[in-house]
Amino acid sequence: MTKPEKHIFICGSFRASGEPQGVCAKKNSISFVQYMQEELADRGMDSVLVSMTGCLNVCDRGPAMVIYPDGIWYGGFESEEDLDTIMDALEENSIAEQFVIN
User: Which of 20, 44, 48, 64 could connect to 75 by a Cys-Cys bridge, CB 3.0–4.6 Å?
Assistant: First the structure.
């Protein structure tokens, strides 16, 4: 595997104790990981890696993700269409402003 240019971390709501907390997992963040992996592959964006992570501590804005190395935080996405908007922006090297967490 080559080193990815971008790495997307999607909150899985898991805390150190192993218990799911917050809203991300309750709002389908786990299924969003698989969707994004498949969609990025379909788009030929092999340089982008998607991973589930523990709690990102922005529960009031979840589900949430962060894209590195850009440091862009997104939240409040609720559907595959929302994820498409985020991936469109990623593909265009821009930002999906409507989902940015400041």
Answer: 64
Query: What string of DSSP letters covers 59-71?
Result: GGG-SEEEEETTT
Write out the DSSP string of 6-72. Answer: EEEEEE--B-TTS-B-SSTGGGTHHHHHHHHHHHHHHTT-TTEEEEEES--S-GGG-SEEEEETTTE
Q: Which residue has the tokens 């971008």?
A: 6
How many alpha carbons lie under 13 Å from residue 15 in its C-beta half-sphere? 9
CA angle 43, 11, 91 (to 5 degrees): 25
Write out pLDDT tens, residues 6-37. 999 999 887 666 555 668 888 889 899 999 99
pTM of the model: 0.89
3 state DSSP class of 85: helix
